[in-house]
Specification:
Largest sheet: none
Number of strands: 0
Shape: rod-shaped
Number of domains: 1
Radius of gyration: 28 Å
Number of helices: 3
Structural class: mainly alpha
Order of helices and strands: HHH
Helix content: over 70%
Distance between the termini: 36 Å
Length: 89
């Protein structure tokens, strides 16, 4: 996230410096660039956050360990107890 913020800040700073020293425009665009920086930062952070939501939800769903133990007698019961003891169930 720090990389995105620093990259965005540097790109806006370069454009502001170009506007200050090279542009022949009568109206200073610093306020416009400040608004652009804030909106672009909000977009970058928001898109990363909302893109990660489905991945987090899928990972949380997959976190549960599901096992099927088949058999007769006491063997499946022992296997279930050993498995539950190792996974913290």
């Amino acid at each position: 996230m720090l990389t995105v913020v620093s990259g965005l800040t540097m790109s806006v700073a370069v454009v502001v410096l170009f506007d200050r020293f090279m542009s022949t425009s009568e109206v200073p665009l610093s306020t416009t660039f400040a608004i652009f920086w804030a909106l672009a930062l909000l977009y970058a952070i928001g898109s990363r956050f909302f893109d990660a939501l489905p991945v987090r939800a899928y990972a949380e769903r997959q976190a549960a360990l599901r096992v099927a133990i088949y058999g007769r007698g006491s063997s499946p019961v022992r296997a279930c107890r050993r498995t539950a003891g190792r996974t913290g169930l």
